[in-house]
Design a protein that fits this description.
47% of the residues lie in helices and 11% in strands. The protein is of the alpha/beta class.
């Protein structure tokens, strides 16, 4: 058998694997979760728990009395203990993952790695804090050390995460090597990871990614300037069948948040209050009902596909 033919057979086998995965992901996930095949499934996800008392309190309220049904915790942040204690008091009723952190973006409010700074030198600035943006100079081995340390600390503190995702999306933007570190964490800890449909399919197979989010929604600066409520109303009305998530950052617009986000209006204190307000509103409730949107959680996905 010639090498060309062998190559064609391998490619066809690869395509069959991809096709089988796509069929499962797009058509059967809803049924695996117990919903009709063409359901519009949505995770309304609160990022950044642990970053402040205000963020924690608003997120807890939006989970208990509003329409937020999932969240993730930042292990290096100052208020992480409060977030973890809340999770431990609600071990099976709520959906909390880890918001894996490689940056510290605020002006006067910073944090550094969980690992010793001597172990992850490419991740920190001269003061020992994370860089304030996704840095292309980070080394994959330092990223692996730090992400593993964050996950291990969560388990050691009694937080059993339902999924992994990425603060500021850094793992997707820095390099393929860093993306592979992130995906490998999901594989090693047997956890779902937040990834979208643009991820290379070769990596889906390599790291046994069992679920992909069809649409990841998050408000941009321009969309915020045009009105948060208008953005979220349109997002819910436009939702398609499949699995989607809306990433939000609920917090109270109080002195703590104003001080934390000073000179940083994007995703700042007022922004976070407006996120909270919409997902506590009757408008949100009405749209979820009218659009027949099914709220699902990473916990459901994990139990159906990973446990």
């Amino acid at each position: 058998m010639g090498y060309r033919r062998i190559g064609i057979i391998i490619i066809l086998q690869f395509l069959l694997i991809i096709g089988a995965w796509d069929s499962f992901s797009q058509q059967n996930l809803a049924e695996k979760l117990g919903y009709p095949r063409n359901s519009k499934m949505l995770i309304i996800h609160a990022d950044d728990l642990g970053v402040s008392h205000s963020e924690n309190m608003a997120s807890f309220e939006a989970i208990e009395n509003g329409f937020v049904n999932s969240a993730s915790v930042m292990m290096p942040t100052p208020w992480v203990l409060e977030a973890v204690e809340y999770v431990k008091k609600n071990p099976s009723t709520h959906d909390f993952g880890l918001h894996l952190v490689l940056t510290s973006e605020w002006k006067n409010y910073r944090w550094g790695p969980v690992s010793s700074i001597n172990e992850v030198p490419s991740l920190i600035n001269k003061h020992g804090y994370f860089h304030n943006a996704c840095s292309p100079s980070v080394k994959p081995e330092d990223v692996e050390q730090e992400l593993r340390a964050q996950i291990d600390r969560a388990y050691a503190m009694g937080l059993n995460p339902t999924h992994l995702d990425s603060h500021m999306g850094c793992v997707f933007f820095i390099s393929t090597e860093v993306l592979e570190v992130y995906l490998s964490m999901g594989q090693q800890y047997n956890l779902p990871v937040l990834v979208g449909s643009r991820i290379p399919k070769a990596l889906i197979i390599k790291y046994d990614v069992k679920v992909i989010v069809d649409e990841i929604l998050g408000m941009s600066e321009d969309e915020y300037n045009n009105g948060p409520s208008a953005y979220y109303v349109n997002a819910l009305k436009s939702l398609k069948p499949g699995l989607s998530t809306i990433l939000i950052h609920p917090a109270y617009n109080n002195e703590e948040m104003k001080g934390m986000t000073v000179d940083h209006p994007d995703w700042g204190s007022e922004w976070r209050q407006k996120d909270f307000d919409f997902f506590m509103s009757d408008t949100c409730k009405k749209l979820l009902e009218e659009e027949k949107i099914v709220l699902v959680t990473w916990r459901e996905i994990k139990e159906a596909l990973y446990d």
